[in-house]
């Protein structure tokens, strides 16, 4: 009886187990069919979904070669590692990156608005002051005589109008004056008048003749005075020196106006014209401004600096400017022009192109290539690439630039996506840099060596196994599988890594 009851219990247990297994199998098939249908629908819709996270994937790539994109996950053909997905919700839109608001604040990222303003063409030049030669005067002798007293003692001495420069002794004047006085005492007015005309022909001033008539004595001294107020720039005689008619005794330059000789870059020469208004400041006193105008453009070009000299005229009635002072000059056009402006610090210039980062939705930032014009103060003119009202990144853009290059944002500007992506964080010179590592030979082929290497800090590589190209099929013939080696390599233009040298590691396995 007990045996029969036990047989029935075992049969019922086996039946229950079979039903459970069958139900699990049916459920698994339904779940598999559902996942297959979902995947099929995703494929039909053109979407790629990461089964682990459920997030939409744009593509997969190898972080070491970010320019190469793959449609499916798998092992990287370049490194011994799995491809990494790039998700749609972190790509920052088409060709952009996303920066978390907290990170933006921590990095001090600032934004600026693209604006349109009426501005005048302005140039900042540098020049030195000079005497205004157009108002300089000379003090000359019209007679033959001797310097009895020199009142001006040295060049660069300040002098006022009417101040004496030199007193001359003129012996040739004595005889005509005595003759004139004798004829006047005789009462012969006709001969006296002729003698007077003779004295005038000998350059005896009328004031001196009047003094002769008043005193009745011949005058043999002549005092030369300064015709203007200014500075004596030349003093050609000393006490006791002989002078002759037409000889320059001194030269006096006025200081109510000064010249400023400024250097204009050759490419901007056509933008500066005579008559343009200028404002100049002294290098040591930027708060004091001196107004003036462009007097003329000198017809010569310096072969060493490739600049053209402009002669500016500055007002100096207060006498604060002296020759030889270094001044900064702001030259402005009379007519204002409407221009699109951004802060100069917002423009990233690489030498081949200029790029600005535009702030978009959801904290995304997208690079845009722009054409720049002239710099106006702290702003730069934008000729194309931006529109008024757009927000651009004004600071911290170089950090964003590095992130954008790692995500292969820049390739669209060069027309060659793979090459630009591989050169994202390295310049051309950096691409040829030699790197060194230590590892073990895992495999040898005519084209490459497979090495299991230790971390390479210079490239921020962890320990991994990867292929390194050989310069030719017979290179490194002494290398053996399992051998510990020291090696050096460099990055090629195609993103591959080429071995330069391979030798046994010190203390390693031979």
TrEMBL record:
**Where are the annotated coiled coils located?**
none
What does the record give under GO molecular function? Answer: transition metal ion binding; transmembrane transporter activity
Task: Give the CzcB-like C-terminal circularly permuted SH3-like domain ranges.
Answer: 341-400
Where the record annotates domain CusB-like three alpha-helical bundle, the positions are: 172-220
Per UniProt, residues of the CusB-like beta-barrel domain are 257-334
For this record, the Gene Ontology CC terms, alphabetical, are:
membrane; outer membrane-bounded periplasmic space
Q: What is this protein called?
A: Efflux RND transporter periplasmic adaptor subunit
Q: Which organism is it from?
A: Noviherbaspirillum saxi
């Amino acid at each position: 009886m007990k045996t029969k009851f036990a047989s029935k219990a075992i049969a019922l247990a086996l039946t229950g187990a079979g039903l459970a297994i069958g139900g699990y199998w049916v459920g698994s098939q339904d779940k598999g069919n559902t996942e297959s249908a979902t995947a099929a629908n995703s494929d039909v819709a053109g979407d790629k979904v990461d089964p682990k996270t459920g997030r939409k994937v744009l593509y997969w790539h190898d972080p070491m070669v970010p320019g190469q994109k793959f449609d499916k996950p798998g092992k990287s053909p370049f490194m011994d590692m799995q491809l990494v997905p790039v998700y749609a919700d972190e790509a920052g839109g088409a060709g952009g990156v996303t920066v978390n608001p907290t990170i933006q604040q921590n990095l001090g990222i600032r934004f600026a608005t693209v604006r349109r303003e009426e501005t005048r063409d302005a140039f900042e030049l540098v020049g030195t002051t000079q005497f205004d030669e157009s108002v300089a005067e000379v003090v000359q002798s019209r007679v033959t005589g001797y310097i009895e007293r020199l009142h001006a003692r040295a060049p660069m001495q300040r002098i006022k109008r009417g101040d004496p420069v030199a007193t001359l002794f003129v012996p040739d004047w004595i005889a005509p004056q005595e003759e004139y006085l004798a004829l006047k005492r005789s009462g012969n007015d006709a001969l006296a008048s002729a003698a007077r005309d003779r004295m005038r022909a000998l350059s005896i001033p009328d004031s001196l003749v009047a003094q002769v008539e008043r005193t009745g004595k011949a005058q043999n001294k002549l005092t030369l005075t300064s015709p203007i107020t200014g500075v004596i720039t030349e003093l050609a005689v000393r006490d006791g020196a002989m002078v002759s008619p037409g000889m320059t005794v001194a030269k006096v330059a006025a200081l109510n106006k000064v010249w400023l000789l400024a250097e204009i870059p050759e490419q901007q020469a056509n933008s500066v014209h005579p008559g343009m208004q200028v404002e100049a400041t002294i290098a040591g006193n930027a708060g004091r401004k001196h107004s003036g105008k462009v007097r003329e453009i000198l017809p010569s070009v310096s072969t060493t600096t490739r600049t053209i000299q402009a002669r500016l005229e500055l007002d100096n009635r207060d006498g604060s400017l002296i020759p030889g002072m270094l001044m900064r000059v702001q030259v402005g056009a009379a007519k204002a022009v409407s221009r699109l402006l951004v802060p100069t610090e917002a423009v990233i210039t690489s030498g081949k192109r200029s790029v600005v980062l535009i702030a978009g939705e959801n904290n995304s930032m997208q690079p845009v290539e722009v054409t720049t014009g002239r710099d106006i103060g702290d702003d730069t003119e934008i000729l194309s690439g931006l529109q008024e009202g757009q927000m651009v990144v004004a600071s911290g853009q170089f950090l964003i630039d590095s992130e954008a290059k790692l995500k292969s944002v820049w390739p669209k500007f060069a027309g060659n996506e793979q090459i630009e992506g591989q050169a994202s964080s390295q310049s051309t010179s950096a691409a040829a840099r030699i790197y060194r590592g230590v590892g073990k030979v895992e495999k040898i082929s005519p084209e490459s060596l497979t090495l299991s290497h230790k971390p390479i800090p210079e490239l921020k590589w962890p320990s991994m196994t990867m292929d390194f190209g050989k310069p030719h099929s017979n290179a490194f013939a002494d290398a053996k599988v399992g051998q510990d080696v020291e090696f050096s390599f460099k990055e090629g233009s195609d993103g591959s890594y080429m071995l330069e040298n391979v030798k046994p590691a010190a203390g390693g396995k031979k």
